[in-house]
Amino acid sequence: MSSIIDIHPHIVSPDTKKYPLDPLGGTQSTWSTERPTTYHQLLAAMDEAGVAKAAIVHSSTAYGYDNSYVADAVEAVPERFTGVYSIDVLAPDAVKTFDYWLGRGCTGMRLFTTGSTLPNQATFFVDPKADPFWEHAQAKNIPVCMQMKQEGIPLLRQIMDRFPKITMILDHFSRAPFEDGPPYAKAQALFDLAKYKQVYLKVTPINVSPKSWGNGAPETFFGKMIDTFGAERIAWGSNFPNSVGTMKEILTAAQKAFAFAKASDQDWIFGKTAQTLYPVLKG
Fold this sequence. Notes:
The chain has helices at residues 30-34, 39-49, 60-63, 68-76, 94-103, 131-140, 153-162, 188-191, 205-208, 218-229, 247-257, 263-277, and strands spanning 5-6, 53-57, 81-85, 108-112, 144-147, 168-170, 199-203, 234-236. It is an alpha/beta fold. Helix 6 links the parallel strand 4 (108-112) and strand 5.
């Protein structure tokens, strides 16, 4: 089996003087208040779970657009980590800021357009002021994670039609609904994105361990995702410590949910796709 790679853990430092809190939306997320996790603790959790490497996703609901802690973690442990950072893409100096964090060792981007502290689906990413960012991300070949809801997909399609070479990673399967069960008609907008070869999907505990599957089930929902997109366009992320549980527990639940899939598909989902998205994690 390939090395296991996590493309969606978070870190938060207890040192608020060195890393001041400034959450997007003005309210710090509950998880980052209750379960702050240093990069040292993340390493220990990875070691216990058997996770080789990680693409740490910047904690927007703790630090806003200051990616210092993620960048410092990557600098400290480059053989295990890369970083996925966030910036204000509407700012006049967005391209300059983009390059600054690239220079600090991060190799991925993330746009936080909805979430625990910003419940509504934002539309800023289609603002013409964001065009220099999109043009630069495409030119630099930096994958962009989209933390968004399924209702944001029409806007996402606008961006992909204009910037067809940008690699997009949809966090948490864009929170596509599954409770209706096969053929999962309510998630059709997500399945329709398979024609965009630049789209990748990130599966996390939000998809793996919902409160109720309703008429759905992991083998039919994830099976249709694999059949539609291909396992080589799906990657696992722990969402640790946002999601409750140890990383080992989170990983085990995900492996159980994908136990129906053939071994080669599991290799892609739990490692090889991550290496496609973040080549620095190879080896």
